[in-house]
Amino acid sequence: MVRKAFILGLSLCCSCLYAQEKKDIITSLKADKPGQGKVRIFQDPKIEALLKSVTAEVVSTGDKNIIKATGYRIQVFAGNNTREARNRAISIGEQVAKLFPELAVYTPFVSPRWICRVGDFRSIEEADAMLRKLRATNKFKEVSIVREQIVIPLD
Is Ribosomal protein among the key words of this record (predicted)? Predict the structure, then answer.
């Protein structure tokens, strides 16, 4: 009787531990397995948020719901901490907004300089395609891709 109770208890513990392992399909596909190829998945960040991935976070800001995730932006200008650099960053941001109204423009002061960054790109390929379009205008000389936390609207 004690032996049966021990085996029953052991099997219950093992099944509980197995049930606690939470793996979604995306994680299991991305895992490196010997003798198999690598899988790279490019998906809409909304799907990742729905799967409750660690890299994306759904945030409510008033009447809007947004996803904060790690992604890429294009840095169009980086100056110093003068008023002239601030005005230049804002001016370049306005130029980008006129040429590409679909891009979000960010002009923060990141100590010790003013920066103008544009876009919210989930993959580096998307950012690179837009970088090439910005360079093709011949108006923006110092463009580069930077990794940053991006904002993606759900609405």
Answer: no
**Cβ atoms of residues 41 and 29 within 8 Å:** yes
Q: Where are the beta strands (DSSP E) in 79-136?
A: 105-106, 109-110, 113-121
Find out whether 93 and 115 touch, Cβ atoms under 8 Å: no
C-alpha torsion sign, points 54, 55, 61, 63? negative
Sketch out the chain's domains with CATH numbers. 69-153 (3.30.70.1070)
Between CA 117 and CA 39 the distance in angstroms is 31
Tell me: the pLDDT tens digits for 42-80? 877 677 666 654 566 677 777 778 888 889 999 999 999
